[in-house]
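Reopening this ticket.

The earlier resolution said the output was attached, but the attachment link was broken on my side. Pasting everything inline this time so it's all in one place.
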Amino acid sequence: MKKLFFIAIFALILSVFYFLLNQNISKKEPHINTLKPLACDLNFKDCAYQFKGKQILISLDPKPIKSLQNTKLLIKNLGMYKNLELKIYGLNMFMGEIKPKIYQINKTDYESQFILSSCFMHTMRFRAELLENNKSIFYFDFDLKR
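Inline output:
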């Protein structure tokens, strides 16, 4: 009887761990298998995007973007945000998340610096997502080529 009780408890514990593991996996960002060309490639030029009726300018430096090298992000004309956060993650392969500090330069402009990991893929597509109070407000994609 004791043996049956322990087996039942063990099965229940395994079921709970399995459920929690699947919940955690489903929260990860979606991954894409085929890459469509970007409308603007930050490896060659600064890019302008429409956001809340205004044009914001995104710049990554140096160009082209390289892995294992300090990359500077400049965001111009975004607007005033008190709790702005930056999250960078891969779209075609999960490589973790980069959450660098983002600094306000003036009322509308921000800057940040980060280092991208090396990857075996020929082209790694990243998404840089801006969040305010943990809610996504804007994102842009860029490629890192080997």
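Reporter confirms the inline version is readable. Residues 23-29 have pLDDT under 50 and may be disordered. The beta strands are 47-51, 54-61, 70-76, 84-90, 97-98, 102-104, 110-115, 123-132, 135-145.
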